[in-house]
Specification:
By secondary structure, this protein is mainly α. It has one domain (3-142). Helix content is 48%, strand content 11%. The chain has helices spanning 3-12, 18-32, 45-55, 61-70, 74-78, 124-131, 134-142, and strands at residues 85-86, 91-94, 97-99, 107-109, 118-121. The strands form two sheets. A three-stranded antiparallel sheet has the order 1-2-5, with no helix packed on it. β1 (85-86) and β2 form a beta hairpin. α3 (45-55) runs antiparallel to α4 (61-70). The chain is globular.
Length: 143
């Protein structure tokens, strides 16, 4: 998922506010400042660092940290919910994917194969970003 695709898809499905769109635009600008990988090529360490630096402190920092360090598919990232994330163990469970069918609202669906339903280890940076995520702070305040 490139930063531009993330912004376009999120705007198209009305999932994010204009403030988050601006954050994505900043990330996309940093991404373009490095040589962008081809469609199926992973970003280089320099490109990943540029994206994480651009997202630092923004509402999407945790999403980018998880995306760049786990290899989850776009639909899997967008389907993540807090009950599937275990920050103490440093892992998450993939139990759904967000799919968009033409003419319908986006839907959460179970992964098609047993291999797609899996436990994924999180990097220290991803755990830290998730701990400081604004949504996580709100979650703990209301608990």
């Amino acid at each position: 998922m490139t930063p531009k695709n993330a912004t376009t898809n999120a705007s198209r499905t009305h999932c994010i506010t204009s403030r988050l769109t601006r954050t994505c635009d900043l990330v996309a600008a940093r991404w373009r400042s490095t040589t962008a990988p081809t469609r199926n090529e992973a970003p280089s360490p320099e490109q990943a660092r540029a994206v994480l630096e651009a997202a630092h402190g923004g509402d999407l920092e945790a999403l980018w940290a998880v995306a760049l360090t786990t290899g989850l598919r776009q639909g899997e990232l967008l389907a993540l919910r807090w009950p599937e994330v275990d920050l103490d163990q440093g892992s998450l469970r993939v139990v759904a994917s967000l799919v968009r069918i033409v003419g319908q609202e986006p839907q959460l669906v179970e992964p098609k194969s047993r291999r797609s339903r899996r436990q994924v280890e999180l990097s220290v940076g991803a755990v830290d970003a998730l701990r400081h995520c604004p949504i996580n702070r709100l979650r703990h305040r209301s608990a």
